[in-house]
Amino acid sequence: MGDLNLLTQLSTCFVLFCDWRIGTHQFSLHTLCFRFLLQLEVINISEYLTTQTPLPPFLLYPRFLLELDLSQTAKMTYALLLDRATLSQKNLWTDERGFVFVIFTICSLAEQLGRSTVSVSSALKELDAAGLIERRRTRFSSPNHIFVKIPNVE
Questions:
Q1: How far apart are CA 92 and CA 115, in angstroms?
Q2: Do 132 and 64 touch, CB atoms closer than 8 A?
Q3: How many whole angstroms from its chain centre is CA 82?
Q4: Which of 7, 50, 135, 142 is the most exposed place for a label (fewest CB within 10 A)?
Q5: What digits encode the pLDDT tens for the residues 45-83?
Q6: What is the mean pLDDT of residues 115-142?
Q7: What is the secondary structure of 113-128 as a DSSP string?
Q8: How far lies 152's CA from each of 6, 64, 78, 129, 132, in Å?
Q9: Strand partners, 145
Q10: CA distances to 93, 145, 146 from 63, in Å
Q11: How far apart are CA 58 and CA 62, in angstroms?
Q12: Is 103 exposed, middle or buried (0-12, 13-18, 19+ CB in 10 A)?
């Protein structure tokens, strides 16, 4: 039933695409379908927040990131690394200095963020240059240990 509903929506997108091409505006089929399905998704998941509504899983987004001159990808990467660091804290993943580290491959970060590996690599370089993370090489062909730093906020 769900596949039939999706097929109906996509065929509607195609009809809209044909209609739009006849007019003065020309949009790609992908753009029209994306906009159409995005509207449907928002309609399907909208629910007012009440005192009893359980919150969906979320990432902590530190306020200091709002003031930094970093790309959005770098900021979201930091938030994701910080979230993963809380798991590392629980599992007691520390180095010889007692600092908590995260193991996160670039491919996994890219998949979680919906970005390319090149974008994630650039974001990690930005975070490293800003002093928000430190990457330490491990063995050959193993992912780096990433140490998430917390700035002194006064």
A1: 29
A2: no
A3: 13
A4: 50
A5: 667 888 888 888 888 899 999 999 999 999 999 999 999
A6: 92
A7: HT--HHHHHHHHHHHH
A8: 50, 10, 16, 17, 11
A9: 103, 136
A10: 26, 25, 21
A11: 13
A12: middle
Tokens of 1: 């039933």
pTM above threshold 0.85: no
Can you read off the two tokens belonging to residue 25? Answer: 């505006």
CA-based nearest residue to 149, from 89, 78, 94: 78
Question: Does residue 87 register a pLDDT over 70?
Answer: yes
Between strands 133-136 and 102-103, the pairing is unpaired
Question: What is the SS3 assignment for 32-76?
Answer: HHHHHHHHHHHHHHCCCCCCCCCCCCCCCCCCHHHHCCCCHHHHH
Cα–Cα distance between 89 and 61 in angstroms, integer?
18
Give the C-alpha separation, 138 to 136, whole Å.
6
Q: Tokens 């209609």 sit at which residue? A: 19
